[in-house]
Amino acid sequence: MDWLDEVRWNAQGLIPAIAQELGSNDVLMFAWMNREALRLTAQLGRAVYFSRSRGKLWHKGEESGHVQTVHEVRLDCDNDVILLKVTQLGHEPGIACHTGRHSCFFHLYKDGAWQVVEPVLKDPQAIYRPTA
């Protein structure tokens, strides 16, 4: 059996993927993968996701330069969530979020409200090329 056949893909042929930083164990981001994205990630050792909004593969860092080197690919107990252990490259400390922050999980619920608890490390306007 092909190892990709053991994955429980959702009705759209996707699986949720969580990127966790090797060493710090910070949860950096959440994205989706299709079969080809997961195959390429394992083959290349670099994170490849599936962009639902664009309907195509998205090589992490293709525009920003904030590439994720993948050290481990794990499948959860129900075979329906992927965990990637990564090193975030492209800026020190690594920027994983399109907002220019280290992690996409920068809102903390505290005292009845969401509070921003991580600084912007680099202005997103300076990271991404304008699209035509």
Descriptive terms for the model:
single chain, 132 residues, mainly beta, Ubiquitin-like (UB roll), four-stranded mixed beta sheet, two-stranded antiparallel sheet, 2 helices, 8 strands, 11% helix
Please describe the topology of this protein.
Elements: E1 14-21, E2 27-34, H1 35-44, E3 48-51, E4 56-59, E5 68-75, E6 82-88, E7 107-110, E8 113-116, H2 124-127
Parallel strand pairs: 1-6
Antiparallel strand pairs: 1-2, 3-4, 5-6, 7-8
Task: Write a structural description.
The protein has a domain at 3-94: Phosphoribosyl-AMP cyclohydrolase (Ubiquitin-like (UB roll)), CATH 3.10.20.810. By secondary structure, the chain is mainly beta. The protein has helices at residues 35-44, 124-127, and strands spanning 14-21, 27-34, 48-51, 56-59, 68-75, 82-88, 107-110, 113-116. The protein contains 2 helices and 8 strands; from the N terminus they run ββαββββββα. The chain has a 4-stranded mixed β-sheet with strand order 2-1-6-5, covered by helices on one side. It has a two-stranded antiparallel ribbon with strand order 3-4.
Strand arrangement in the largest pleated sheet: 2-1-6-5
Helical residue percent band: 10-25%
Question: What's the helix count?
Answer: 2
In total, the number of strands is 8
SSE series: EEHEEEEEEH
Mean pLDDT value: 92
User: What composes the largest sheet?
Assistant: 4 strands, mixed
Radius of gyration: 15 Å
- How large is the share of residues in beta strands? 35-45%
Short description:
The protein has 132 residues and is mostly beta strands. The protein contains two helices and eight strands. The strands form three sheets. It has a four-stranded mixed sheet, covered by helices on one side.
